[in-house]
Amino acid sequence: MPTPARTPVTVVGLGAMGAALASALLAAGHPVTVWNRSPEKAAPLVEQGAAHAPDIRAAIAASPLTVTCLTTYDATLAALEPAAAELAGRALVTLNSGSPSGARTMASWATGHGARFLDGAVKNVPTAVGKPDTLLYYGGDRTVFDEYGATLRVLGGDTQFLGPEPDLAALYELAVGGTLLPALLGFFQGAALVTARGLTTDTLVPHTRKWLEMIGSLLPHYAAEIDRGDYSAPLSAIEIFHAGIPYDEELGTENGLDVRWHAPMHDLLRRAMAEGRGDQSISALVELLRNPAEHTGV
Question: Given this model, what pLDDT does residue 295 score?
């Protein structure tokens, strides 16, 4: 077994996140080989001590562990295909965006070429890589996680193994990531609202942070309701949210805001009301999301 603190690692893909991963590994004392389709992106990492492989075959051959950080599974497959033969007996960790089906395809291809495969996700921005509380989670070959766990924790101190299914990281990436854009749009709408009054967006930050903390505190309760399938004792009922629809529309009209992004959420609330779910917990909306065909035309 390699010495965890000094495991040689190859990093493929040197965008903002890939470069951050390579920098963290170098800072922790790992011998790092880098490769990117645009070789000029390797120069700052070479200055930090990385070796720049002349081609993808040499990059894979340089280390027992390869970490890829490209945009999609298709991009990862395209980059690695010329080096398929070099993957045999090596560990491959992919950190890219994509669907669970893409992760399964990637796993099948990698293991078909003799690689030990682990798929993961970085749940933070590049500047957070290497910090003690940065979350990364993985699914796939447990032996890879066990053997290289110390190396992977260099990338983020909150490093978790989700299970042996190779698509689990992609599954949770999309399941958790679904909250990101709606939350950001809500903040951006608030920014448009207060700045129209001559106030600054930074005045919104402490109040929004507190609001998000409150929402976070409610998640265990809503999770328990969903897992039980019992929505009969709501903290917040669907009818309360439904009653707020006119206020959203009035807000847009009065302040010249584009609030059309609310429309699908309003539609979901109206359909829940039409089903007689008004007195149920807002978490009952999961039932409409699970079976959209059953609610069409309600």
Answer: 52
d(CA 229, CA 207) in angstroms, rounded, equals: 33
**Whole-number CA gyration radius for the chain:** 23
Q: How far is CA 117 from CA 62, 144, 145, in A?
A: 17, 7, 10
Kindly report the pTM of this predicted structure.
Answer: 0.86
Consecutive 10-residue averages of pLDDT for the chain (298 residues): 71 97 97 95 96 97 98 96 97 96 98 98 96 97 97 97 97 93 96 95 97 96 98 96 94 91 96 97 97 60
Token reading at 34: 């880098």
Q: How far apart are CA 168 and CA 157, in angstroms?
A: 20
Distance CA 164, CA 298 (A): 40
As a whole number of angstroms, the distance between CA 56 and CA 83 comes to 6
The CATH number, out of the four listed (3.40.50.720, 1.10.287.110, 3.30.360.10, 3.90.190.20), of the domain defined by the range 4-175 = 3.40.50.720
Residues of the chain with CATH 3.40.50.720: 4-175
